[in-house]
Amino acid sequence: MDGTFDNDLSKIVDMDRDHVWHHLTQHKPFETGAPRVIVEGKGIHVWDQNGKKHLDAVSGGVWTVNVGYGRESIANAVRDQLIKLNYFAGSAGSIPGAMFSERLISKMPGMSRVYYTNSGSEANEKAFKMIRQIAHKRYGGKKRKILYRDRDYHGSTIGAMSCGGQDERNAQYGPFSPDFVRVPHCMEYRRHEQDGAPDENYGEWAAEQIEQVILREGPDTVGGLCLEPVTAGGGVITPPEGYLQKVQEICRKYDILLHIDEVVCGVGRTGKEWFGYQHYGIEPDFVTMAKGVASGYAAIACCVTTERVFDMFKDDAEDPLNYFRDISTFGGCTAGPAAALENMRIIEDENLLENTAAMGDYMIDQLRALQDKHKVIGDVRGKGLFLGAELVADRDTKEPVDEKLAQKVVAECNAQAVIIGVTNRSIPGKNNTLCYSPALIATKDHIDEMIAATDVALTRVFG
């Protein structure tokens, strides 16, 4: 990796500027400037079209490349599988699909069945459809409402956005699907914004606010509750003590199916455990996952259910509608589970769950040291190598900094060849949290580089 490339990349940049529609990007600046093209990756670093080496502190920009770049063994596993069998519809099985389902379920006590799809949005849609079909099968269609939480994000389809608690992401895309109902967030740092929130036992109180919504809507109309175990794009929000346990208790009380969205947190991101929810001792009915399942080496997502949920779709075989009448075309691609099997082997053999926990502890300590130095950091939070630092104009009032200033911190880090993230056009007036999610192979030296760049950036922007 010497930062030089054989191809004429200026032509590639022109092609990109002229024809590619980038995600989450305003393209007006490209009329006078060049878009960034990422050319190569190795380990935790990437190189752009100018040969500049960057430390990637966000795992591919969206929390995906968990085991790092350049893993030849994953590429070889995909290649070998594609030659043998690249695709067959998910109405039939495949060798890698069967093998990965068994391997995955072995990491998820209490879960039983894997439904393959090709994206996190689609995986969540499958869970929503299962809940709706169960409502029709068992409750005459009445128990069809699905609750979702303020600040959580579950995907970019209209159905998933109907279940999304980020108003700026949803702006200009309505009207949305009916019978998705929002519940309050559980962000302890901003509990002062919630009427009646206590200083003690906030977690249980926040869960009880969900119960109040259930009672208002009518328990006989609510079929599911969808939550992120750690809220990602809404500000890297960890659940307060006692919250998820109380949420599960409430769901069981009212016969509501609990859906945990692990699209970001799943497959090691939070350290020690394979999934975020496993830190809190709960037993969901659905777990959805995507990004880190194959670390971006192939498209794969999964909607995982309990056997109890699965059995609801085969209890009356004579009924022609009594099965899950759904298909995901690219859920039949064999590259995904082939890559996922090798991805999981790497995590196990290289002890990356343990590394993630240890490096996460180290990084949160370093962020807290930055908090002591820079008054603009109001809160530091996260789990494993999934961390956030919320920037505020005033620590006493917790007034968020202008999001342009938060974006400027990201730009200053980028100028130092360190790519970090920030909550972006999600929560009106509160896009103020710096985000860090490096690959699970991160070392102390990598983290020190991220912290040093952030320190310099904060000084440049805020003094």
TrEMBL record:
Gene3D superfamilies: Aspartate Aminotransferase, domain 1, Type I PLP-dependent aspartate aminotransferase-like (Major domain). Keywords: Aminotransferase, Pyridoxal phosphate, Pyruvate, Transferase. GO terms for molecular function: pyridoxal phosphate binding; transaminase activity. CDD domains: OAT_like. It holds the Pfam family Aminotran_3. Its cofactor is pyridoxal 5'-phosphate. The keyword tRNA processing does not apply. Belongs to the class-III pyridoxal-phosphate-dependent aminotransferase family. This is Taurine-pyruvate aminotransferase. InterPro entries: Aminotrans_3, Aminotrans_3_PPA_site, PyrdxlP-dep_Trfase, PyrdxlP-dep_Trfase_major, PyrdxlP-dep_Trfase_small. PANTHER family: AMINOTRANSFERASE, AMINOTRANSFERASE CLASS-III.
